[in-house]
Amino acid sequence: LFVKYADTASMIANHLKISDTSSMLSSRAPLSSPSLTGIPTAPTALAGTNNTQIATTAYVTAAVLSGTPSADALTGTTLAVNVKSSSLTSLGTLTGLTVTAPINGSITGTASTVTAASQPAISSVGTLTGLTVTAPINGSVTGSASTVTAASQPAISSVGTLTGLTVTAPINGSITGSASTVTAASQPAISSVGTLTGLTVSGSVSASSVAATITTAAQPNITSVGNLTNLSVAGNASVTGTVTATNGLYASASSSANGIGYSSGGSSVTQTGSKTSAVTINGLSGQITTHSSSLGWLSSATFTVNNSAVKLKDVPMLAISSGGGTGRYILSVDSVQDGTFSISVFNKSGSTVSDNIVINFVIIRGN
C-alpha cells in the first residue's frame, strides 16, 4: 500500500490541530469525584461480590430481592446466619407461620393457634397468660400452671407425676396411676371414684353411699359411716365403742358360727361355805359352781352375786350346765341392783340332795 502525493493535502486537512486541544481538555470528567451525565453503564458484578467494584442497578436489585421476602407472603427458608445485625422486633399479624427449628428467646403478643405438628422442638414457652390446647400434649410438662380449665382439656389422657393438683370441677372419666394424697377439702364435687385397688382415708368420708368392700385393717380412723342400707361383713368386726341398732340386732339362727353373745372375757367362781354364801364374779357372762351342801325337798337356797358390770335395769339369764340329775332344780333371779343380783335354787327332786350345781349366766343390757 502506497500513499500518493496527491492525497497528502486531504490527509493534512483532517489531522488534529494544536489549537483544538484546549476545548477538548476542558470538557473531560475529572478522575476525582466525576459528575457523569446521561446514562453511564458498567459491567454487572457477580452476586455476592464484596470489593470496591462499581455496583450497577442490576446488581443491587438482584441482591435486595434475594434477601427480602414478598410483603404479602413469607415463604421458603430464612436462615439465621444470613440475617446480619437484624433490628427486626415485630412481624405484625401473621396469617400463617411455620417454624422448622427452635425459637431461641422470648415471644410476646398473641398467637391464635399453634399447631402441634409444627412444634416438636419447643421445650419452653415461658409464662402463658392464656393457652388453649386442642390436641394431646406428648411429653412432659414442667413448671406451674395456675388454672387448667376442664372445658379445654378433653384430650388429656395422662398428666404424668403431679406434685400438687387442685381440681375445682368434676373429673369425668377414669383416673389411673397412683395419687399419694387427695385432700378432702379440695374434692367437694367427686361423686364417684370407680374401682379403687387401694385407698387410705385419713379423715372423714362424707358420702350418701359407699359400695364394694372396706377392709378392716385399713380403717382405724373410721368413727361414723352414716346410715347403711346394707352392710355385709365377711370377717370379724371388733367394736370398742357402743353399737346402737334402732331396728334390732339379728343373727342367722341357722348359722353354725358364733351367734349373738360374748366371744371372750367370761370368768368363773366357786362358792364356799354353803349354798347361801355370796360370790363375786365381774363380767357380763360367766359360770358359778355352788357349794355341795345339802338342800331339802321343796326348799330354796338364795345367794348374792356381786358383779360390778350389772346395772339396775339389766336382765340376768341363767342355765344349769351340770350337777345333779335332770329336773332336780329350778333357778330364778330374785332382785337386780347396780353391782349385784340374787340367785335362788329350788329343790323339786322329791328328796334331800347335795350337788355342786354349775350355773351359766349372761347379762342382757337393759335401757
Concise overview:
With 367 residues, the protein is mostly beta strands.
Q: How would you explain this protein's 3D organization?
A:
The chain has 367 residues and is mainly β. 6% of the residues lie in helices and 14% in strands. The chain is built from three helices and eight strands, in the order αααββββββββ. The protein has helices at residues 8-13, 21-26, 57-67; strands spanning 267-270, 279-280, 285-289, 300-306, 315-322, 329-337, 340-347, 358-364. The longest helix is centred in the first third of the chain and has 11 residues, at 57-67.
What keyword list fits this structure?
367 residues; mainly beta; four-stranded mixed sheet; 3 helices
Q: So how many helices?
A: 3
Shape: rod-shaped
**Could you name the ranges where pLDDT drops below 50 across 5 or more consecutive residues?**
80-85
CA-atom Rg in angstroms: 55 Å
Helix proportion = under 10%
Strands side by side in the biggest sheet: 1-3-8-5
Strand content: 5-15%
Measured distance between first and last alpha carbons: 161 Å
Give the secondary structure arrangement, pairings included.
Elements (H helix, E strand, L loop, with lengths): L7 H6 L7 H6 L30 H11 L199 E4 L8 E2 L4 E5 L10 E7 L8 E8 L6 E9 L2 E8 L10 E7 L3
